[in-house]
């Protein structure tokens, strides 16, 4: 690729992780290195990959990290009807800034005006670029991001991103959702750090949302959604879903993913019975590896090798693609942190809604009694191939009966 600017030795991906964190494999470090499109001392722009959107819209998403040596930010650049190479060379396409409260947006229905506003940005023939400053998540493991309210920091990193890439200053600021009202029901606990408590509207009624931080944890930041305040939760037989973050599915509604559907189904079930909780882990995107390699996986699912700029390949299913990129250890998600949270709020036993036996095993290891309930994804948004792949490889995530 003509614009590739790799400066060896300026950005190195740490070969070591703290004790208790999943290790970084050689395959992963090599994958990250070949996925760098543009890099300098402070900005690392990964190739990214294509989104699979309704109407076959032409949108490419690239993860970008800005690191000033003290703090770092995670951005997503959305190239509409163009490619990163063309946009960065031309440097004359319109640029808009997306402002999304991620938790609020992940909970909105497709009928929400903000949802249509975002989809309309993709449903056009013009070439333009969208920049989204991510509140949570990560471009690559183990650089998980905890929400910050520092507008000064965000603006400083955005200015650095614009300067280094050569993109135009954003001409339009799109605020598609906003944080909901502050919740007065802060949990009374000295062992669980709660950085915010909010209420979000959902189709079945308001949800309490708690932003939780765990130190010495690979994922650091968790969000807990529940129809009841924490202090009113029953301690036994609580219906729970452990939900990994997935920006392309839960924000951009990618057709190759059922994550948004599973999240909404779980919340509907919880509201129907009147209590329960979803523990959402934003930084577990890409099976824990982050968005950089995930977008390479998305390319391989569509017959595109983003690292070599070749297409018309045989499309791979999601798990085969992940194995090709990362080797046999393509899923490094851990669930002890979710178990710690449940224990801290006094939960003894749960009904876990999952098709992933690793989640149940992780919580059981943390001292939680678990009864598994299968999920009921339908693939109505076009994610049938994704569901079929998981059933094809059911020995990895499923029991022998394939449930």
Question: What is the topological layout?
Answer:
Layout: H1 26-34, E1 36-39, E2 43-46, E3 49-50, E4 59-67, E5 72-80, H2 84-90, E6 95-99, H3 102-106, H4 113-122, E7 128-133, H5 151-165, E8 172-175, E9 193-200, E10 207-213, E11 221-226, E12 238-244, H6 247-250, H7 259-273, E13 277-281, H8 291-301, H9 318-326, H10 336-344, E14 349-353, H11 357-365, E15 369-373, H12 384-392, H13 394-397
Parallel strand pairs: 6-7, 6-8, 12-13, 12-14, 14-15
Antiparallel strand pairs: 1-2, 2-4, 3-4, 4-5, 5-7, 9-10, 10-11, 11-13
Helix pairs in contact: 8-9
Structure description:
The protein has helices spanning 26-34, 84-90, 102-106, 113-122, 151-165, 247-250, 259-273, 291-301, 318-326, 336-344, 357-365, 384-392, 394-397, and strands spanning 36-39, 43-46, 49-50, 59-67, 72-80, 95-99, 128-133, 172-175, 193-200, 207-213, 221-226, 238-244, 277-281, 349-353, 369-373. With 403 residues, it is of the alpha/beta class. Helix 8 packs across helix 9 (318-326). It is globular and about 60 Å long. Residues 5-9 and 398-403 have low confidence and may be disordered.
Mean pLDDT: 86
Number of helices: 13
Class by SSE composition: alpha/beta
Q: Largest sheet, if any? A: 8 strands, mixed
Helicity range: 25-40%
Strand content: 15-25%
Number of strands: 15
Flag low-confidence runs: 5-9, 398-403
Q: Report the principal-axis shape.
A: globular
**End-to-end gap:** 44 Å
Order of helices and strands: HEEEEEHEHHEHEEEEEHHEHHHEHEHH
Rg, rounded, reads 20 Å
């Amino acid at each position: 690729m003509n614009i590739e600017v790799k400066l060896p030795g300026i950005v190195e991906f740490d070969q070591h992780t703290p004790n208790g964190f999943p290790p970084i494999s050689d395959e992963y470090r090599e994958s990250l290195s070949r996925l760098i499109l543009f890099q300098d001392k402070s900005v690392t722009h990964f190739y990214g990959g294509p989104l699979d959107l309704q109407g076959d819209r032409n949108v490419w998403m690239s993860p970008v990290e800005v690191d000033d040596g003290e703090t770092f930010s995670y951005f997503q650049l959305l190239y509409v009807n163009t490619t990163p190479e063309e946009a960065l060379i031309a440097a004359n396409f319109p640029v808009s800034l997306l402002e999304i409260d991620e938790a609020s947006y992940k909970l909105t229905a497709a009928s929400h005006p903000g949802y249509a506003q975002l989809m309309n940005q993709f449903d056009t023939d013009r070439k333009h670029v969208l920049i989204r400053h991510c509140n949570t998540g990560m471009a690559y493991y183990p650089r998980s991001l905890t929400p910050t309210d520092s507008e000064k920091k965000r603006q400083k990193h955005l200015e650095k991103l614009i300067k280094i890439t050569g993109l135009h200053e954003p001409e339009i600021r799109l605020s598609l959702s906003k944080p909901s009202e502050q919740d007065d029901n802060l949990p009374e606990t000295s062992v669980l750090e709660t950085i915010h408590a909010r209420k979000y509207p959902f189709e079945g009624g308001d949800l309490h949302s708690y932003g939780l931080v765990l130190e010495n944890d690979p994922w650091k930041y968790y969000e807990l959604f529940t129809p009841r305040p924490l202090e009113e939760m029953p301690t036994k037989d609580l219906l729970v879903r452990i939900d990994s973050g997935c920006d392309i599915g839960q924000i951009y509604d990618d057709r190759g993913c059922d994550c948004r559907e599973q999240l909404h189904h779980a919340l509907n079930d919880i509201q129907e019975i009147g209590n329960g909780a979803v523990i959402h882990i934003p930084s577990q995107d890409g099976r824990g590896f982050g968005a950089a390699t995930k977008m390479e996986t998305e390319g391989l699912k569509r017959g595109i090798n983003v690292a070599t700029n070749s297409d018309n390949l045989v499309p791979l299913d999601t798990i085969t693609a992940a194995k090709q990129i990362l080797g046999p250890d393509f899923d490094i998600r851990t669930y002890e942190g979710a178990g710690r949270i449940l224990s801290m709020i006094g939960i003894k036993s749960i009904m876990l809604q999952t098709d992933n036996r690793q989640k149940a095993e992780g919580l059981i290891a943390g001292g939680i009694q678990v009864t598994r309930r299968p999920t009921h994804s339908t693939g109505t948004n076009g994610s049938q191939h994704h569901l079929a792949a998981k059933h094809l490889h059911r020995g990895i995530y499923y029991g022998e009966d394939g449930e």
